[in-house]
Every structure is written in C-alpha cells, then in structure tokens.
Amino acid sequence: MAFGDVKTSQGLSELNKYLAEKSYVSGYTPSQADVQVFEQVGKTPAASLPHALRWYNHIASYTPAERKAWAAGVSPLNAGAKPTAAAPAKKEEEDDDDVDLFGSDEEEDAEAAKIREERLKAYADKKSKKPALIAKSSIILDVKPWDDETDMAEMEKQVRTIEMDGLLWGASKLVPVGYGINKLQIMCVIEDDKVSVDLLQEKIQEFEDYVQSVDIAAFNKI
Q1: Contact 77, 32 (CB under 8 A)
Q2: What is the pTM of this model?
Q3: Shortest CA distance to 164 belongs to which of 201, 131, 219?
Q4: Counting CB atoms within 10 angstroms of each CB, which of 25, 30, 50, 121 has the fewest?
Q5: Residues 86, 73 contacting (CB under 8 angstroms)
C-alpha cells in the first residue's frame, strides 16, 4: 500500500489504516523506511489515530544513532518507491576508520618492558641482601635396646657422640615399652639441606651392641 503526504490529515489517516495490522512500515523490524516516514510526520499524531500514534512513539523511543543503524526498507510514501538506504555515517565516524589505534603499541611495549626489567632488578637486589632462610626440622627418635640389660645411659652417650654439620641434639627421656625394657626417646634439630634422616638412623644403628632399631616418633618442620 502507498499513501500520500503524511503531513496532511488524509495522509495520516491512510498511515493509521496501514499500521492497523503492522508493527513497522516495511517488514517485521524497524528500517530506514520507518525513519523516512517518521521524519515526514514530524510530530506526534492525534489520539484519534491510535495505530499511527503507537508506531510514532515506538520509533521515537530509539536514539537518532540507533535509527541510523537500521537497514534499508521499502517506503510506502509514494507508489513505486525504491528501498530507502541507510543514512551515511558521519564523517567523523569515517575518519575513525583511518585512525591507527595501535600505532603506539610498540613504543608502549618497549617502555613496559623497561619498567618491568627495572622492577625485577630492584627485587633481585633487595632479595640478595636478605639472609637466606634455613629450612629446619625437629625430630624425635625412638632408640630401642636389645633387652632390659642394655646400659641405657651408655646408649645415650654413644648416640650423642654422633656429630654432623647441621645436627643439634636436644632433650631425652626413657620410655617404658614393657617387660622391664625402656626405649630412649631423644630429640634433635636438623638443617634439612645438610642432614639426611636416613643417614642419621644408620649411624645410630651402628652402635649394634646397644641399639636394636631406630624409629621416627615425630617429625615437624620448623
């Protein structure tokens, strides 16, 4: 359907009838045809033209920028009208396409890399001035004798003769295990990087006249 000048009462009436069963001037989505008719109408239709009023208020709810982005559509303003093309973008928008938004990336990357290197160097210098943390462990060993006739005092004396860099002997006590037999429970602190617990156990077991076995009762990192 084509209608005439929508600035006239007759044209608006024809538009109102046209929109009675349509949401938009052309097709099922808003298009440039709606924009063209909207601009031709120019003002809000009277309440006596409910379909035209509903359509006008709907188109007016979009911003001009949104309306410019709509696709072309067939305008029924005049019989045989050609599809209405989308409005050309503003010159500023066209000019934006020529702007190299990433032109300074290389300079920024170089500056960022320089700052990162400086920070890493400062961190390394600061870290090198700090004393290195020494990892240590606190261990309680259960040293078991052969029988109740084993001289426990001599056993402890022999155990404490073991000297290793990073080994420090601590308190000890005798703990009953049954049948009149006691075990030697002795504590020591070791530096993890210097003392092997397995090697320490082997050295204690070398006192085979006194020691039957050595077990770890407790092991805690300090």
Answers
A1: no
A2: 0.43
A3: 201
A4: 121
A5: no
Name the residue among 144, 207, 196 with its Cα closest to residue 167. Answer: 196
Instruction: Quickly tell me which residue has 């022999």 as its tokens.
Output: 158
Q: For the segment 42-100, what is each residue's pLDDT rounded down to a tens digit?
A: 889 889 999 989 999 999 999 999 989 988 766 666 544 445 555 554 444 444 455 44
d(CA 94, CA 12): 37
Quick one: residue 6, left, alpha or beta (phi over 0 = left, psi -120 to 50 = alpha)?
A: alpha
pLDDT tens for 120-166 read 888 888 777 766 678 999 999 999 999 999 999 999 999 999 999 99
Mapping DSSP to helix (H, G, I), strand (E, B) and coil, where does residue 156 land?
helix
β 181-191/211-221 pair status: unpaired
What is the residue-wise DSSP string for 35-73? Answer: HHHHHHH-SPPPTT-HHHHHHHHHHHTS-HHHHHTSPPE
Q: Residue 183, class by beta-carbon neighbours within 10 Å (0-12 exposed, 13-18 middle, 19+ buried)?
A: buried
CB 3 within 8 A of CB 15: yes
The tokens for 116 are 């990162």
d(CA 137, CA 158): 22
- With tokens 């949401």, the residue in question is 23
